[in-house]
């Protein structure tokens, strides 16, 4: 976990230095800018979000980040990675890696709409039939820029399972995202 946090800190430092060399473009969602975000998560999904829960001696957690690059004004291509686990009161702990690939478009540079594919793999990702999750997610929210480089982005997201052997249920979730724009 310490290595993951160190890698995240180095990535933020690297993106900051790259952007500091050329800061001639306009707003936070302009072409050529970078985006790094952390979102609240949902333990049912393979997630690149952040969460922790504990109940009756069992606990589950996830840590992850998404990053993106604006290929044109207001449109970012994104990728994310996450790592999580479950520790029951009794029995063996499990863990899983999660990934996300997608796009994020900011209408009027402040209303983000996302479309992405999210999945997970590892001993903690499989259901009882040995299937792993794969979700298509669509979300929308509002980007509240609290400074030139930081936004808080609350929003709603709906995830549709693409693997009916894993689950045939969709998941609606409320997220709060925290984004850095460089």
Characterize the structure shown.
With 182 residues, the chain is mainly beta. The protein has a single domain (29-181), classed as Beta Barrel (Porin), CATH 2.40.160.20. It is 11% helix and 53% strand. The protein has 1 helix and 10 strands. The chain has one helix at residues 2-21, and strands spanning 34-39, 51-55, 58-72, 75-87, 94-107, 111-121, 134-141, 144-145, 150-161, 171-181. Strands 1-3-4-5-6-7-9-10 form an 8-stranded antiparallel β-barrel. A hairpin with a 3-residue loop joins strand 5 (94-107) and strand 6 (111-121). The longest helix has 20 residues, at 2-21. The protein is elongated and about 55 Å long. It starts with a helix and ends with a strand. The relative contact order is 0.17.
CA distance, first residue to last residue = 25 Å
Low-pLDDT windows of residues: 1-25
CATH architecture: Beta Barrel
Strands, total number: 10
Q: Supply the helix-strand structural class.
A: mainly beta
| Fraction of residues in β-strands | over 45%
- How many discrete domains? 1
Treating each run of at least 4 consecutive H or I residues as one helix, how many helices? 1
Order of secondary-structure elements = HEEEEEEEEEE
Give a quick account of the main beta sheet: strands, pairing sense, barrel closure.
8 strands, antiparallel, barrel
């Amino acid at each position: 976990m310490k290595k993951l946090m160190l890698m995240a800190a180095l990535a933020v430092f690297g993106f900051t230095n790259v952007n500091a060399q050329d800061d001639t473009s306009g707003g936070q969602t302009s072409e050529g800018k970078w985006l790094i975000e952390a979102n609240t998560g949902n333990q049912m999904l393979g997630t690149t979000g952040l969460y922790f829960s504990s109940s009756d001696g069992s606990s589950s957690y996830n840590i992850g980040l998404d990053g993106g690059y604006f290929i044109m004004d207001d449109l970012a291509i994104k990728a994310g990675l996450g790592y999580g686990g479950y520790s029951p009161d009794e029995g063996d702990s499990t863990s899983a890696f999660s990934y996300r690939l997608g796009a994020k478009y900011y209408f009027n540079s402040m209303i983000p709409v996302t479309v992405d594919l999210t999945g997970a793999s590892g001993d903690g990702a499989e259901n009882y039939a040995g299937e792993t999750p794969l979700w298509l997610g669509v979300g929308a929210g509002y980007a509240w820029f609290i400074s030139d480089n930081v936004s808080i982005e609350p929003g709603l997201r709906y995830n549709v399972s693409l693997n009916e052997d894993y689950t045939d249920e969709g998941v609606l979730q409320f997220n709060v995202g925290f984004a850095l724009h460089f």
